[in-house]
Design goal:
It is built from four helices and 13 strands. It has about 270 residues and is α+β, with helices and mostly antiparallel strands. The strands form two sheets. Strands 1, 2, 3, 4, 5, 6, 7, 8, 9 and 10 form a ten-stranded mixed sheet that branches. It has a three-stranded antiparallel sheet with strand order 11-12-13.
Length: about 270
């Protein structure tokens, strides 16, 4: 078991995150709070041994039946092939009307053959020659019409690994001027675009869990219920929920109010997926 409270931003103690050393891409930001957050996250360094495991993979917005945050002593024990498929998702943050951090999500199109109607982060598989940042920005533009020029990428988090060996990397971006974003859902991939407060993924309100087994190892699936202002109801779960719990813990610098129940990943490594 790993204690989630040990996670957080790994900053150089000599850095004052509220001060920029020189002129930077943050100078034109309208919100000083977002500027401070971006400057702080810019120095985050993900642990090279932190992974997560999931039960499935999808095309387009990346979702999953399972999401399990983990910290394995040696991720190479899992013998992940060097040419395993890679994907990236965009955690796109902005400041809401009450100055709270919010994250943009999608509901996958009901016409899709897999995971139709499920909630996902904008994202998908990497094209040849792309890095995670380029993939996340391209997919967000294709799926929700978000112009790459409106997003400031500030950090990349630990990758999540599906048991089908799809490596999913969360990329954190901030929209300094959210009013300029005009959502344009791709009808073939997305039924709805909505946003939720990031902090909800650290609260036990509207949260429930389901315990399952995979490779004889018990793990926990997290579910969050969200009622949108327009009356629509969404369930955020699986890998999407796991990524958002992990991201919220790092960005807001506190553990969740509920136990994540991390499995015995030494046993998982011994089972070699």
């Amino acid at each position: 078991m790993t204690n989630s409270s040990s996670r957080g931003l790994h900053l150089d103690p000599s850095l004052d995150p509220t001060q920029s050393r020189s002129s930077s891409i943050f100078e034109d930001w309208g919100s000083s709070n977002l500027k401070v957050l971006a400057e702080r996250l810019r120095h985050y360094r993900p642990s090279p041994s932190s992974w997560a495991s999931s039960d499935d993979e999808t095309h387009g917005g990346v979702t999953s039946q399972v999401g399990m945050p983990t910290s394995i002593a040696n991720a190479n024990d899992l013998k992940v092939p060097p040419k395993s498929k890679r994907a990236a998702v965009l955690l796109c943050l902005f400041q809401g009307a009450e100055r709270e951090l919010r994250v943009i999500l999608t509901k996958r199109a009901s016409s899709l053959s897999s995971h139709s109607g499920e909630v996902a982060l904008p994202g998908g598989k990497r094209d040849e020659g792309e890095d995670d940042k380029a993939t996340a920005l391209r997919e967000a533009h294709e799926e929700i019409g978000l112009e790459p020029s409106h997003v400031k990428i500030v950090t990349v988090l630990e990758p999540f690994l599906s048991k089908h060996l799809l490596t999913v990397t969360p990329v954190v971006g901030i929209i300094p001027e959210h009013h300029k974003f005009e959502p344009r859902p791709n009808a073939g991939e997305v039924d709805a675009i909505f946003d939720v407060p990031l902090e909800m993924f650290l609260k036990d309100e509207r949260h429930r869990v389901e315990d399952r087994q995979w490779l004889n190892i018990q793990y926990r699936v997290h579910y969050f219920d969200y009622d949108a202002p327009d009356g629509k109801k969404y369930i955020i779960w699986g890998l999407t929920a796991a990524i958002l719990i992990h991201a919220a813990s790092i960005i807001l610098q506190r553990p969740p109010d509920f136990p994540e129940f991390w499995p015995d990943f030494d046993a998982l490594a011994r089972n070699n997926l």
